[in-house]
Design goal:
This protein is of the alpha/beta class and 107 residues long. The protein has helices at 19-23, 44-52, 56-59, 73-84, 99-104, and strands spanning 17-18, 30-35, 62-67, 89-93, 105-106.
Length: 107
């Protein structure tokens, strides 16, 4: 015998947020996004260093958004130092990004 069981996951509506508006990123900039837990193994510092190798004209056309929580304070400090020494617009949102917020982000 088969019986229909409704989905146990409650579906709730969410508001779509515009990622550029939320973080103040100009519409004409190329956007690189790293979303999720911020950890050394994700090579964020290497990405920052690579962005610094771009020409000044290219650097002015790029934004790197790092959105996710960094548990390791020493690594967080390294990221902040890398941001301070970069001409590229780099935004570090050091907060937990839940699935609802992640799914609601659109470029």
């Amino acid at each position: 015998r088969f019986e229909y069981l409704p989905d146990p996951v409650a579906v709730r509506p969410f508001r779509v947020s515009n990622i550029r508006q939320k973080y103040g990123i100009a519409a004409d900039k190329r956007l690189l996004v790293q979303v999720g837990g911020v950890q050394r193994r994700k090579n964020i510092l290497t990405i920052i260093d690579s962005l610094n190798d771009l020409s000044p004209a290219q650097q002015s056309q790029v934004c790197f958004l790092i959105a996710g929580y960094c548990e390791e304070k020493a690594f967080e400090q390294s990221i902040l130092e890398g941001i301070a020494n970069s001409a590229v617009q780099i935004i570090f949102d050091n907060t937990f990004i839940d699935n609802d917020l992640f799914e609601s982000m659109k470029v």
